[in-house]
Sequence to fold (321 residues):
Amino acid sequence: MSKAARGFLQTLTADQKAEVVHSLSDSLRFDWHFVPRDRAGLNLKRMTQPQRKAAMKMIEVVMSDQGFQQVEQIIDLEHVLRVLESRPPNDTRRDPENYAFLIFGDPASKNPWGWRVEGHHISLHFTIIDGHVSFTPGFLGSNPGHVLIDVPQKGVRVQGKEEDLGFQLLASFTEDQKKKIVLGAKSPYEIFSLNKRQVEGMDKLEGLAMKDMTPPQQELFKQLLTLYLNRYHITLKNQQMAQLEKAGLGNLHFAWIGNTTLKMGKNEGHYYRIQGPTLLIEFDNTQNDANHIHTVVRDLTDDFGEDLLKLHYEKAHQPKK
Fold:
């Protein structure tokens, strides 16, 4: 990751570096969102081809093949939105080139540093502290969730597996189990964690714990969980799994709100989440007649690497023996 970041910086001019590089303590690091907006940093539109290649390499290094493909497909959906909304080719609201890169700190040093790539429906954050990588928040969305119009991308469901497996897991539960799992009939308009620096108001574990599921249900639940972690490089996935196992996989809960039957092309809003002491995963498909998906992975103990950074700085200021 450090090599890829340094390689990207080497392609930039002095003025571009001034836009891209900020202090790790800069509050800009926590100013994140997944909606179309003007973004700090250097976006793809203002990069040369070698710079774009080096920027995308940064993403490729930290994601799995599956995750990197999703990122590319989400960017490509901006072309679909231009057609859906009858926007001109030079439109800047639905813009496949408005994905911006920021680096916080110095990737060539041994000090903590981090970086972010962000644009419509993509907000990926990585913080490196003493060899440990925090890779949350990690937001990926897709609009349309299912491309139905006559374009080259017709039929694409970037997050179809996340949706289908969620419904498959829900269908495996008995009616008594669903009484615990289904929290309401109307899906929320948006994920509950939103774009906040820290997850708030979600301290209560709701739904059904994995330890209370049957073995086949637990297997489906694990498949859904790992589908989200498989977006990332295997080292990062294994790091998160080790943390979850330490906290107790059985303590992870599954909860659902909204429509409980998948009806392709004429769906109704639905939402689910996986939540435990250390992890929150949210899936929401409510907007645009339930054809607009938002998903996020949050680390409830170490988003943005904040807890690890605190520990790092506390150790740095301890008196030497």
In short: The chain has ten helices and 13 strands.
